[in-house]
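[step 3/7] fold_predict: job queued, chain A
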Amino acid sequence: APGLLVIDDLQLLDPLASVALRHLLAEVRSDPLLVVATYRQGSQRLGSPHSRAVTALLRHPSASELRLAPLTPAGVAALVAGLGVLDDGAAELYRRSEGNPFLVEQLATASSAAVPETVGELVEATLAGLPDPTRELAEILAVAGAPLSPTVLAGLDPNGVAARGLLDASL
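[step 4/7] structure written:
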């Protein structure tokens, strides 16, 4: 039967998971399988284990890469219109976001006049509003360098409250 596998943030895939995925792709040659993966280009240092894992996956014979360019000014205006926000500031949103859809959406829907200029500032502002345990877990995850095992995560957040806070904040 046909299958679909979606992987978000492929750059976070560790080398062992990359090997497992390559084996999966090799084994399902007779069954139709579409793998759709997102990858943030430039997010990993060249030659890092993550970078090598992604490169190996892209070398798969049936792999193809579709690089997405930033939104154009017209694309920003369309996104803003789709959000139900007045588009009279779309040109300014384009300038500030450089066409990054995530930042366009965050800037367009912000309720404050003091809107962060960058994604980093936006994340900092979001983290500042979180309870201490949730913010501390986010900071640990940010510097971990790789996904944490469920055992380690349970040790850091035994009742899951901080993790739930991160999910609720869409982080």
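[step 5/7] annotate
The chain has a mean pLDDT of 78.
Residues 2 and 126 are 40 Å apart (CA to CA).
exit 0
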